[in-house]
Amino acid sequence: ARVAIVGVGPIGGVMAGLLEAAGGHEITLCTRRPLDGLTVKTPDGVVRVKAKNVTDPARAEAVDWVFVATKTYDAKGAAAWFPSLCRENAPVAVFQNGVEHRERFAPYLNPELILPVVIDCPVERQQDGSVIQRGQARIQVEAGRLGTEFAQLLAGSSARREMTDDFITAAWRKLCFNSAGALSALTMKPAGVLRDEALGNVALGIVAESVAVGRAEGARLDDSMGQQVLDGYRAQPEDSINSMLADRIAGRPMEIDARNGVIVRKGERHGIDTPLNRMAVALLNVFEGRPCP
Using an 8 Å Cβ cutoff, are 281 and 292 in contact? Predict the structure, then answer.
């Protein structure tokens, strides 16, 4: 298939590597600046992605599928590519954090063409532009025609592909994990910081708020979610850096609203208090130099 990837950061890079490994695809990498090439270092070896690189949305050609892997706050920038890439009604798989995949792109696309995706993959982008994939990619999509077609694109790759009838739970489970990651960004320390007992208890509280709001939204989350999240962070290498911390270190905008702000917003809608997430949002906004919402 002809597949375009909009946003070639860590996740976009992993997806390009998986498509290359699957074989037979024509890959287009849509970036702001020219790429000299893309190398993905995976547990199975090094993948050198053979792809066309386009930096001007007006010069992009129509494709069969679009993968969006930009930051959540750059929906408008990603959507600038759709008129060219989606001329033939290409579906758009959205690889982003949070639980508002469709809402984010509904102003720009027919919602029936949007496929929300949850991806769990330990990955980091290096200063030389290469991507290091430290473990298997687990990808969950909604069951249905688009989900089936998407899964077929990755046949032959190492990705673990799952289709679910309960995508809302899958998305909120990922959000519970991401919500606790704010503590790394706040402390400017990698995952090992959550091995501290006191901070671990704060993480449990953040996730408990996330679970309460997720349940109100219809997600099926059990009481062990907090401990699962904490155990997951503590099982990571001590120097593992999540994307929010990486963005703060690099001086880039952080996905504050998509990772913790959405919990506060939806909590207010359901009358659920979320003081720990609210504090995280307030502090992170101050660190970014923005007024608190």
Answer: yes
